[in-house]
Amino acid sequence: MSDIIKKESYPYAFTPSACASCEGKCCTGESGYIFVTKNEIEKIATLLDLSVNEFGVEYLYKKGYKYSIKEVKIGDSYECVFYDRATNGCKIYAARPNQCATFPFWDYYKTRVDELKKECPGIIDV
Ligand code: SF4
Ligand code: SF4
Fold first, then answer.
1. Is the pTM of this model over 0.90?
2. Closest Cα to residue 122, out of 9, 51, 25?
3. Which of 12, 14, 89, 116 fits a disulfide with 109 by CB distance 3.0 to 4.6 angstroms?
4. Per-residue pLDDT reduced to its tens digit, 34-48
């Protein structure tokens, strides 16, 4: 199986094997929003065996009309509260938000490949 993912209309490709040694650069580092939809909130709450309300109070904050997953500051790094340093993985991987599941293929990066390369070591030119 090829370890390169390409998507039509994206000027770059992605090698998922880079994640093994990357230490979650897309889940840590600079502060950013990790937006979740109502549907995603319900799925994550179910995965964690929490009510939607309990989950929201513990793990979300409001940004405008949207909700984002909270971060924790460790040293100079702002890390998603669900990033697990010990395993270099996502604690809610099975229910992770679409924003995470579709990274690095975001429209935003189509014209910002250099910016993306700084964020993600798995990006290669096509
Ligand atoms: S930044 Fe890229 S290589 Fe690193 S964990 Fe995220 S997707 Fe994988
Ligand atoms: S939800 Fe999971 S994949 Fe998304 S930023 Fe947090 S740790 Fe990373």
1. yes
2. 25
3. 116
4. 999 999 999 999 999
**Cα 95 to ligand 2 centroid, rounded to whole Å:** 10
Establish whether residue 92 lines the binding site of ligand 2, counting it when its CB lies within 6 angstroms of any ligand atom: yes
For the chain, report the end-to-end CA distance as a whole number of angstroms: 18
DSSP-derived letter for residue 75 is T
Let me know if residue 72 belongs to a domain: yes
Question: Is residue 95 situated within a structural domain?
Answer: no
119 lies in which domain range?
1-26+103-126
- The Å distance, Cα 124 to ligand 2 centre, comes to 22
Quick: pLDDT tens for 14-67.
999 999 999 999 999 999 999 999 999 999 999 999 999 999 999 999 999 999
Residue closest by Cα to atom 2 of ligand 2: 90
CA distances from 54 to 38, 60, 66 (A): 14, 10, 17
> Quick one: 66 and 109 in the same domain?
no
Task: Check whether residue 64 and residue 41 sit in a common domain.
Answer: yes
How many folded domains does the chain comprise?
2
